[in-house]
Amino acid sequence: MTPGLTFAHIRVIYPSAPARPYTPMHGALSTVWFDRYKISHDCPEHLQSIDAMCNTLGSIIQDEVNAGIPKHRIIIGGFSMGGALALHLVCRYQPDVAGVFALSSFLNKDSVAFKAVEEQVRAGQSLPELLQCHGTSDELVLHQWGEDTAMLLQKAGMTTGFHSLPGLYHQLSQPELELLKTWILRKLPPNSS
């Protein structure tokens, strides 16, 4: 994220991914949220590392709730792996937050998050709205993977908004951040409890 994403009435928390051995880098230490078997939407998820990080981030969310911030005033999101982790965190563990965003992110095509959404919907649990943005020229996380993620989450029962950014690579852009900021302000307007 960028320091330009600031709000008068919202505190933004930027947790950092830990250094861990990362299989796509031949086990070299990398600052990543979780391990992957490979960078592909067509392989199993490394659930042990994903669930461990969901637990860690869940503690941060609980600290905010304990400090008086209601869940319906919390948005979770991230870029790339951070967005994928945000999707796991919200779809599987924190479905009662105000919203979730995933920028240049994807879930594996057989992700347990899709099943979790279906189960939440079947149980009558409402899920937060998802905002996704993805560059059409992204060569690391293919645009199609992001689009497929949005389609599968929508099919499972989640409200999704997918925005393609023509010519954008695996990076953030000012128009994308403005779109995100507008969306956040719609979800968390000032002076509402």
Which ranges are low-confidence, i.e. pLDDT below 50, for 5 or more consecutive residues? none
What's the CATH class of the domain at 70-187, please?
A: Alpha Beta
Span between termini: 26 Å
Structural class: alpha/beta
How many DSSP-defined strands? 6
The CATH architecture of the domain at 70-187 can be given as 3-Layer(aba) Sandwich
User: Which percent range fits the helix content?
Assistant: 25-40%
Q: Look up the CATH topology of the domain at 70-187.
A: Rossmann fold
Name the CATH homologous superfamily of the domain at 70-187.
Answer: Alpha/Beta hydrolase fold, catalytic domain
Describe this structure in words.
The structure is a single chain. The chain is of the alpha/beta class and 193 residues long. It has a domain at 70-187: 3-Layer(aba) Sandwich (Rossmann fold), CATH 3.40.50. It is 37% helix and 16% strand. The protein has helices at 47-66, 81-93, 112-122, 143-156, 174-187; strands at residues 19-22, 28-31, 75-79, 99-103, 129-135, 160-165. A 4-stranded parallel β-sheet has the order 3-4-5-6, with helices on both faces. It has a two-stranded antiparallel sheet with strand order 1-2. Helix 2 (81-93) runs parallel beside helix 3. 36% of the residues are buried. The mean pLDDT is 93.
